[in-house]
Design a protein that fits this description.
mainly alpha; Growth Hormone, Chain: A
Amino acid sequence: MTKTGRRDSQCHERTSLLVDTQSLTRNPLDDEEQILSSASSSSTQTLTSTPVPWRAVSVILILNGIQPLAYELVFPFINQMILEIGVVDDPERVGYYSGVIESLFAVMSFLFVIPCSSISDRYGRKPVVLISIAILGLSTALFGFSRSYWFMIVTRALGGTSAASWSTMKVMLSELTDRSNQGQVFALFGVAYKVGQILGQPIGGLLSHPERAAAGCFTLRETKPRRKITERMNRSYGSCESEDTLAAEDKPSVPWISVFTPHVVSILTSLMTMVFTSETLFALYPLFAFTPVQYGGLGCSEATIGTHMAIRSFISILQMFLFAPMQRKFGTLRVYQMSMLVWPFTIAFFPILNLLKRWEVGSLLFDGVLFVYFVIWGFGNLSWPASSLMINDAAPSPDSLAAMNGISQLAIVLPQAVTPAFVTSTFAWSISTTLLNGNMIYVILFISVCLASIHCLTLKEPTTDWRDDFKNQSDD
């Protein structure tokens, strides 16, 4: 080897040695910052790109739409049914009996929320949901065969017990999603519920008495004389075990009192006020629209009221698709607060709509104002999916998730059972008095809704995430 080649080789070795020495003497804090930065970016990328398990989620969404469908199904024909089976002879007395059956569904749901949540913690979510849906289908079918008032009560109460599994469905969705995709999924959860509400009453009205509506389809008559037949149906129940069940087996339920932290109590309080406001509008608007104009209403026919409610539901469904992008941009709490702040305006629209009717303004102007009212109402409904996410995020641990959703279901069902009777009675009392020219109800509701809106501004974001513990348990 020549001298020149040796020098080049030695220079190359020295250069490599210098490079290695510099890399060894580099500040280790810089490496740590790079690692943390890389991990942070990787975590952020994972957070924004978690795929939704649509196969399981779609089943839950369909089942969620079935429950409101079964609940709304009886409303079109319940009054006529009570007359036909001979419960009462006077149509004016029907309301007393139909009201019991209509509210019984929500009352039984309220009573069975806690047992359903405890059972789902012990035996799994899937058995609770499947058995509840089977009971709901059975009770709905048997209700149509009712020939006495007590049988109507029993079958309706049976269906109400199955509605308590709604909180279990929300738990399953919470365990199937994370913070990156829960907004999209729970928005669709609300859409599925709205679709069930919309389809329930038309199906019940159109399919009641099919032998009359489609008499040509029933051509074969029974030729044998009638006689009483007593059937005994033996029903057997089986139990099934599935690896797909999300709840851990043989795990004791979390004490319910342990989840009542100040943060959770504040959220539940806001949830109850939100449900009170939402149910107020559902109960008040049909009565307000039916009431004659001179008594403070709109003087609409039943068909017009049905059209109004259908348009409102359609607008609300479209607005539900805004929830996911808004939740990603502003966060769950901010969306909830924004939607709660519009509720006072929905109350203020009632006297405004009545004034427009009294002034006999053009139909185009009135319909435009009514459309704006429905849009504001629909935006307020975004508080429903937002509240579901807030309840899920506030759970202290994965084991307390079922308890949290069970308690939240109680906070939902209780106002649903009380609000309609309170609001309609207060409306009747208000228009019968001369106090504030019959508008006292709107003052009471406006003040209460404003207080609810102010309270929601005190809510705070959760400081912990139970999904971290849930992921660690799954890895173990």
